[in-house]
Every structure is written in structure tokens, then in C-alpha cells.
């Protein structure tokens, strides 16, 4: 277990051996449909397809998928509430089309987020980063994403170690001590992560690492059946959104 539930789900997913390019096509198409098509029925169909594929063929644990989607859902809900407020000379009030605007914002956001989570819970970063290089994403962007991904595990390990030490010293035995320990924990983790990043940069510079770190990626074959099914499903979502009033 890596410490990241989404990453663990990606490594154990039934779609782990599928080509990342195939999954990028499917999930990218779903995100595009969620953004372009109307909320009804387009976003609803995209959300249902993304969740159904994740929990069905991909075999992502429902608890993991639900925990991953709850914080973005809360963020989107707060954003939808603030987007429908109207400010006028009489003060604050609801916009005339508040209900439809909130529903549209929620529909597009939740559907797009579910499609992104489908990719995240079925494709490890070690597969996704080489695929981004092959798609000619700027090397600097890929390298920054790779470094940030690796530092996440350093942060998690530091967080876990310091938290255990504080608990052993009764640092969370009362509310007042919990507040103090949480502040110390945040400061220590940020300090350690900054120091680790600095030492990593100095080590790479000392070894003459002026270009990206090249590794031999695992080549996963593309599936024509999967691609054909993905394109057909996306076309079906588009057709249903156009035909249904």
C-alpha cells in the first residue's frame, strides 16, 4: 500500500493492464462531453457512465471512489450556492434562474470530476506520465508532475511519523493540545518537505542532471475493441443529448 487510496486503487484496478492511451481517449472524451453537452441529459449520462465503468468493469472499490469524490462534490456545492446569489441595490438575493444555474453547474462539474476520477483510479502515474510524453506534453510540465507525485509520499510518511510521535506523547489528549500539536505538525511537515526538495535539487544538480530523468516505460498494447466501444459509447451520449429535449 502506497498511502494514497486513489493510487492503490489504480494499481489494483482491473484496467491496470490496459493501454493508458486508450483510457485517456475514453476519459478525455467523457470530460469533453461533460463540458460541451447540456447538463440534461448529457452530464447525467456522463456521470452515470463514469461511475458505472469505475465500479463495474474497472472494479474500483466503491468506498474509495466515494471518498475521492466527496471533497470535490462539497467544493462544487459551495461554488454553486455562491454562483446563484444576486447582488443589487436592495441587497443580496437569489438570481431569477438560480435553480437551473445551480443544477447546470453541479451537473457539469460532477460529471467531469467523475470522468477524471475514472482515469485516476484506473491508471497509475507511472503509466500516465510516459503517455503524456508521447502526446508531446511539454517536458517541463511532465517533470514537475513527476517530482510533485514523488514528494507526496515523502509528505505522507513525515505526516504519519510525526503524528504517531505526538500521539505517543499525549499530544492529542485534549482539545487545546490537539490545536497546538496540529500547528506543530503542519510546520514540521512543511519544513521537512522544503528541506527534502532542496536536497533533491542539489543532488540532481551535482550529478549533472540538466535534462529529464529517462526511464524505460512499460509498453501496454492498445485494444481496438476497447477503442471502438469507447468511441461508440461517446457517440451514443452525444446522440442522446441532441435528441432528448
UniProtKB/TrEMBL annotation:
Keyword Metal-binding listed: no
Biological processes per GO annotation: cobalt ion transport
InterPro entries in alphabetical order: ABC/ECF_trnsptr_transmembrane, Cobalt_transport_CbiQ, ECF_CbiQ
CDD domains membership: EcfT
Presence of the UniProt keyword Transcription regulation in the record: no
Main location: membrane
Gene Ontology CC annotations of this record: ATP-binding cassette (ABC) transporter complex
PANTHER family attached to this UniProt entry: COBALT TRANSPORT PROTEIN CBIQ
Cell compartment(s), UniProt: Cell membrane
UniProt organism field: Blastococcus haudaquaticus
UniProt keyword list: Cell membrane, Membrane, Transmembrane, Transmembrane helix
Protein name per its UniProtKB record: Cobalt/nickel transport system permease protein
Membrane topology reported for the UniProt record: Multi-pass membrane protein
Residue spans crossing the bilayer: 24-53, 73-93, 105-125, 137-156
